[in-house]
Amino acid sequence: MNTGTDLGALDGSQAPSATLTLPAKLDLAAYEGVLQGLTAAAPNIAIDASAVESVGTLCLQALMAAYQSHPDSFSITASSDAFAAQTAFLGAPFAQIIPQGGAL
After folding, report:
1. Rounded to whole angstroms, how far apart are CA atoms 84 and 69?
2. What is the spatial distance between Cα 25 and Cα 40, in angstroms, rounded to a whole number?
3. Exposed e or buried b for every residue in 24-44, given b needs 16+ CB within 10 A?
4. For residue 32, how many C-alpha atoms fall within 13 Å in the half-sphere facing its CB?
5. What is the pLDDT of residues 6-19, one digit of tens each?
6. Are 72 and 43 a contacting pair, CB within 8 Å?
7. Which one of 12, 14, 59, 92 is most buried, by most CB atoms within 10 A?
8. Distance separating alpha carbons of residues 54 and 12, to the nearest angstrom
9. C-alpha–C-alpha distance, residues 66 and 47, integer Å
10. Helices in 1-104 by DSSP H: which ranges?
11. Which of 6, 7, 15, 30 is CA-nearest to residue 72?
């Protein structure tokens, strides 16, 4: 998992956002890293879920908590089909913020 920094607008209109690149498996082993990444990126969180193959409920809970805490500054910049399908199946409210067609 990578946490990069996107400086966004440099005119002060938008605070910098950190991009959190999620691992292929969002399972129990990935949970602590995901949680640390979300905490470090807050409040402007950009998620790259393009490599995700499976989504576990614990990591999904962390993502949903971050989304609910920062709904106006939480974004999913890229998504795999598996991430989109599995989060929708599990009831996550991400459908409206997942880019159509997967990765941008």
Report:
1. 21
2. 20
3. eebeeebeebbbebbeebeeb
4. 1
5. 333 333 345 556 79
6. no
7. 59
8. 37
9. 11
10. 28-41, 57-69, 81-89
11. 15
Say how far apart CA 47 and CA 21 lie, in whole Å.
6
Q: Which residues, 6 or more positions from 90, have their beta carbon under 8 angstroms from its beta carbon?
A: 55, 57, 60
Tokens describing residue 14: 């938008």
CB distance 102 to 79 below 8 Å: yes
Q: How many residues does the chain have?
A: 104
Residue at token pair 């089909």: 81
Phi first, then psi: give them for residue 25, nearest 5 degrees: -110, 115
pLDDT digits 0-9 by tens, 47-101: 999 999 999 999 999 999 999 999 999 999 999 999 999 999 999 988 888 886 5
**What is the reported pLDDT for 21?**
96
Q: What is the pTM of this model?
A: 0.79
CA distance from start to end of the chain: 19
